[in-house]
Design brief:
173 residues, single chain, 64% helix, mainly alpha, 6 helices
Length: 173
């Protein structure tokens, strides 16, 4: 039995410049000095998972690793801590990419929640192995906030692909 897709509209191909722009904007948002809150959602992780699900051939594990290194350098963290977490996150997103798009946004958010938990757990394990400080129990809220951001990111990042290539009042698609 063929299941209906969550979106009824055909999508245009994603522009590579738009993908790069959104990744750089997410990197910039993560680099804003907003304090050291453990519950702060990682916007770059959400955008990496989104593009890993929707464009797995363009944004893969290598890009996640590079952006992870940039975050490590910016945060002054152990070099490779976020790179490893983002690489695992991207790999999980690529594994889920065929199945995830069949579900509505709420169900997608529930399915990417374990990915976000696993990425934060991996970064925490690496941090604790080298003698880092415990960030507190508030860190358990960060993956939840990232899963809550998933529908918002999906709507915003798919918006340029939903426009009609030629605006025509007589064409239904």
């Amino acid at each position: 039995m063929i299941m209906p897709r969550a979106a009824d509209q055909l999508l245009l191909p994603a522009n590579p410049w738009f993908i790069a722009f959104t990744l750089l904007v997410a990197l910039t948002i993560d680099m804003v000095p907003a304090g050291r809150l453990a519950a702060m959602p990682d916007v770059l992780a959400v955008v990496l998972v989104f593009w890993g699900v929707h464009q797995p051939r363009r944004v893969g594990v290598l890009w996640a690793f590079v952006f992870g290194l940039l975050i490590d350098v910016h945060d002054g963290a152990l070099l490779g801590q976020h790179a490893l977490a983002y690489s695992g996150l991207s790999y999980g997103a690529i594994l889920l990419h065929r199945r995830l798009t069949w579900f509505p946004l709420g169900a997608q958010a529930v399915q990417v929640l374990p990915l976000f938990f696993a990425a934060h757990a991996l970064a925490l394990v690496v941090r604790m192995l080298v003698g880092g400080m415990w960030p507190g129990w508030g860190m358990l809220l960060a993956p939840v906030f990232e899963a809550v951001l998933w529908p918002v990111a999906s709507v915003l990042l798919l918006a340029p692909q939903r426009r009609a290539p030629d605006r025509d009042a007589n064409r239904p698609l």
